[in-house]
Amino acid sequence: MTAAGLLGDIAGVGADPRRGGFSRHGFDQSELELREWFRAEAVARGLDVETDRNGTMWAWWGPPADGAVVTGSHLDSVPGGGAYDGPLGVTSALVAVDLLRARGFVPGKPLAIAVFAEEEGGRFGVACLGSRLMTGAIDPDAARRLTDPDGVTLADAVRAAGLDPAGLGPDPVAMARIGVFVELHVEQGRGLVDLGAPVGVAGSILAHGRWRFSFAGEGNHAGATLLTDRRDPMLPAAQVVLAARRAAAGIEGARATVGKVVPNPGGTNVIASTVDVWLDARAEDDFRTRAVVAEISDAARGAAEEEGCTVTVTEESYGDTVIFDPALRDDLATTLGGVPALPTGAGHDAGILAAHLPTAMLFVRNPTGISHAPAEFAEAGDCTAGAVALADVLAHLAR
Ligand code: GLV
Ligand code: MN
Ligand code: MN
Ligand code: MN
Q: Does the entry feature the keyword Thylakoid, yes or no (predicted)?
């Protein structure tokens, strides 16, 4: 079976006809279905599967032990996401095991595939939730209280999935198991297309985070309320969208996005009483990222005051620039015959783990350059090249 073929096997799970693409979120029905699919695929390969207390699935080739060579990714998606972001890393890991077995490879070190929960934060709002919990990058009490759009807390969701919410949090035992982590991922830009290469290694990840702007005004009637009598929180909310583009455009390499706006109560003929606006901001370093957010926050506060509204700004998650282990990056690039190294603006569990242990990523060419959308793509041949590269890398690291 090929990596693209395995993606075809799960194409019916979490398909979202309303948004297009896939909506698979941490511990929801479709993600739980994918977990069972992964368990069956791993068991069929003779791997031993366990789920740790943060909901990370581990499939072990040989007995679990410290210092293992670990690969993997995630099975959840953004709302209406593509087929490749996450699952390609998981299917490629399974195929890499097949390739290594076919080569008669005998691991000299323990090998495992890890599948992290809620990498996109599409349900509970915090990206890389599983790896943040494991590494201690998020307070477990705050995490347990995270709430999905239906009001379900993370604590309730993990309990429903058969985990004990009290077990969420830093896991030094699981951390010690990872000697080195390599995540294969579809590229989320056109870097490899421009270089004419099917596979590359990651160099760095932009500093990035998520901020929530909560505006409060006065709910009222859209027809009966004079313009002069309004305190409409949608006006300062709109200024966040405009300020985001303006602020990012003023700083080399910065990006700022408003992808989610929730007015309450959300009626066409209703002036909203509150509006929540989520900002995703990224830049080369901490200083630039914070400068972008500060400029947008100033604009939000000014616009709120002008409209007689209030605003609170909450940092929901943040991570500084990641520079992947240069020695490991160069070692893997050489192992693969000199493939290019690329920076990325996208966040990954590998980026969270990079603060604690040697971590690397392999990217597979994406001809559309599009990601977090249904047009995300990788040619089947490039997926195979990626799985072979991953097998080569695992063989090298676990020799
Ligand atoms: C996750 O994919 C992110 O970069 O937002
Ligand atoms: Mn993603
Ligand atoms: Mn991903
Ligand atoms: Mn990601």
A: no
